[in-house]
Amino acid sequence: MIEQFKLKANYRSLSLELEAPSKLMVVADELALSRVLSNLVENALAYTDKGSVVVRLADHSSLWSIEVEDSGPGIAAEHIPRLFQRFFRIDAARSRALGGTGLGLSIVRNFVERMDGAITVESTIGKGSIFRVELPKS
Predict the structure, then answer these.
(1) CATH assignment of the domain containing 107
(2) What is the Cα–Cα distance from 77 to 79, expressed in whole angstroms?
(3) What predicted TM-score, i.e. pTM, was given to this entire model?
(4) Which of 22, 73, 77, 125 is the least crowded, having the fewest Cβ atoms under 10 Å away?
């Protein structure tokens, strides 16, 4: 799935990397997981002007984790609590220019919660963001 985004990354002179164990099998709603990953990677590529996007998949004892880390502009702490609200956009002008509606992260959160998972964000202005999804194995 990550391969489909490599062309966009290359076009924008960005590095797109996947870090995952060689034998990782995540048991989850395939469509929901695909939408979550696609949306997070698409956002990371759209808002990163230079540098890289790294997707990490990990198998922990009781859960799977997915991280999408970018070297974009970062997100101010005051915006993080509202990121997953419908129609919320930090930079409405840029979102419109990129074709964003402000629904993507809300949809991501809904899919993650339907799979009994959680999504969190860590971000530093000027350094980038990490979106982390944790899904239970049960």
Answers:
(1) 3.30.565.10
(2) 5
(3) 0.89
(4) 22
